[in-house]
Each structure stands twice: as structure tokens, then as C-alpha cells.
Amino acid sequence: MNIRTALIRLARATATTMALTLLTAATSTATPATATTNDPGPEETVFVDAASLPADELRGLDQPIPYAEYARFHGSKSAAPRAAADPAPGDQQDLRQECTNHAAQAKTATGWLKSRFESCQKRPFDLVLRDIRGTTTLGRLWFDQWVLGFAYDGSRRVDYVSSIENIRVQPIPTEDAKKWRIGQHFHHSVNASSSDADPLVTAPQTVNRDELLGVWDTQPHWNLTYTSPDKGALFDQGNQQRVLLTVAMDVSASSPNSAPFTGGSNLYHSSVRYDYAGPVAGKHKGTVFSKARVELVMSQKDPAVNESAVHVYDALNRPERTFPSWPGKSVPGSKEPLRRVVATKKIEDNRKKSIKECKKVWGDYAGSGLECDEYPFASTKEGSTKGDNRFSVRLIDGKDNRKGGERLNEMYTLNRVLDGDPFYVKITN
């Protein structure tokens, strides 16, 4: 069926003289307003999830037309051809592909958190256009919302690349989709109670973009940068200049004939932490996506750390094989996070108690080339001195033990894991 035929068929089935409002999946279903002979007010607007509508109400609205094709067909003078290639840098292209491969997570409000330094949201929208009485369907709009996030190890900044893409429309003949608009509106807040003293964030100059569909179609991307100034190295005075930031975004959509749609609030939100923690974090300052899951991954087949990996695997999955031994023993790190500790005395106390436990089980092992391996690690709050006996010790090869410690410290610094930050442990075969 060609475009003209589809539009004519839709026109015959649909009334065309009502004012419009945009209906979206981002809102909850409201009770339809009662039709009256008077002009309805904005309070009678009904927002409906397209997926919640009966199939018969969407009949004939299942033939999306790419916006550029629609605009050309309707003689738009502003329908410029799309660029032949996406100008996005290679790192953005890679993240977009990975984001697409994690579609279920990517369409959530937080998006898919690849790491502490990369995140993305790809959220599809399916919006239905109706009159303000909620009785007449007048068109349909589809698009994808993207937000790519980049934090930096070594810089107190975070960048977002936001876009509206893959726009498709199917209006009735009397409705002009070239006049429809979509908006992205960013806002932020600082959690002062959880931040260090005097937390400051500098927002980008432009945080709102409300455009006609044609503008989005030809210029889909825009960039936002949030920075946090610092006062130099104060970590040796106990001030890590941590700033906890939440960046959120609302989506709006409108038609000239409709009451503006403003129901798409907080459809994206991102949690960020800035710090200037010094050498304990690796690079002295940086920014992370604080909700990202951090894992220490070790393989039982890695000859450099296989004994360490087997010990941790046993502690997590076969605690009855580990010492100290007691009925019902469980060890955290897989489902329950471990939390880093940086206090030197706490780390030393953990090691002393673990060595004492090794000697209790195996006696004096001096000169054997073996060392006392402990899990959870001495550099965690769940170490052996916590007091709940949910730990394990084992004699393993000394080189393996030291290499395992190196891998742990690398994980800390590569992920900017600070004191009290949670992380998990994953052992592969």
C-alpha cells in the first residue's frame, strides 16, 4: 500500500476537526474526560499509553513513515538530506552498538551502565495523538531517545551526548506532522548532605532543546558538559572534594493545536560523583557514574592467580571447605558487596588476625614458600576483624598471593574505588 492510499484510508476512518494533545507511554493511564458540547479545557486532556490501547483503536495506525520521507512527500522546503555518515567518534559508535545489545537495560531510566565511565540510554517512544476529549485518534509518532554518558578518570567533568533519532510518523491528512515538536530538558541537583564541604557544579549553558521534528531529523545530536571546580590537592587534609550530582532529563512533545505534553518527567537520570581523592584513587582526581557495578574478576585458569581464584571460589560457593569452619557459614562478595577500607591500621589488623588463623590450622609455615591468603580481603570492611567470622584463610603459593593483591589494587585504581565504595567479586572457570 503506498503512502497516499494509507493516508486516505485513515482519513475516512478518523474525525479531523479536534484540537490535539500528545499521548505517551511515559505517563500513567488517566480516566477519559466526558465529552460535552462546550470546548474542553486543558484539564480534560487524556494521556494514554499506546501499548495499552485496544488493537481496534490503533487499526490503520501501523504504517510508520520515516519523517524525511513524509516531509518530502508533503513538499517541505526544510527537509534537508541526512548526512551520509554519523559524525560520532569511534568510542561513541562502539558504545551505541553495545547499548543496542543491552536493550532491556538501556531503556530504563538509568540506562545501561557499561562501567564507571560509560553509560547509555536508548529508549523507544510510541506516542498516540488524540483530541483533548480523548475520543478521536489523530496520528502516531515513533522515535528513539539516546543519551550517551562519559565520565573521566583524571578530570572533574562528565559529558552527555543526547539525541532524538529514527523519527517516524503517521498523521491523518489534515494534521501536519511537520509542525510537531519534541523537547529534551536537562536539570541537575547536588546532594550536599553526602558531598564534602562547598560542593559546586557548573552546568552547561544550554540545557533545553525543543525543536520541530525536521530539525531533530537533520541535527539529532547535542552535547552537555557538567564540571566541578576544585581547590587543588586537599586530600592529605582529609578533604577529597567529593560532589554527588544527579543529572535528570524530561521529555516534552507538542502540536500547535494541542495542550503541551509535559508528562515525561525524569525519564532519564544519572548519578555522578566527582572527587579529588589523591593517589588512593590512582589518578588524583576524576569523575565516575556512582551506580555502576564494580567487579574484581579472576579466572581459575589464570596461572598467575589460579590458587587465589580457587580460594575465593570456594569461599563464595563451598564455604564448608574453608577455615574457620562453622555450620551455616556464608561469605560476602558475590551477592553482598564488599566495601573498600583504606585505613592502614584496619588493614594491618585484618592481616594479623588472618595470619593467626592460618597458623592455628596449619602451624608454622615459614620457609615453605606459602603465604596466608585471606578472603574477604584485608583492605575491606568485611575482613577478618569484622567480628562475624564470615571470612576464609588458606595457604597458597606466595607469588600467586602477591599477584592477587596486585590485581585487587589495579581494580581499585582503574575504577576509582574510594573508602567505603562497594564492589563485587566474580570468579570464572
From TrEMBL:
Region forming the signal peptide: 1-35
The record's annotation in InterPro entries points to: DNase_NucA_NucB (IPR029476)
Say which domain of life the source belongs to: Bacteria
- Record keyword Signal present: yes
Q: Which UniProt keywords apply?
A: Signal
Q: What residues does the Deoxyribonuclease NucA/NucB domain cover?
A: 355-425
Record Pfam families: DNase_NucA_NucB
Q: What protein is this chain from?
A: Deoxyribonuclease NucA/NucB domain-containing protein
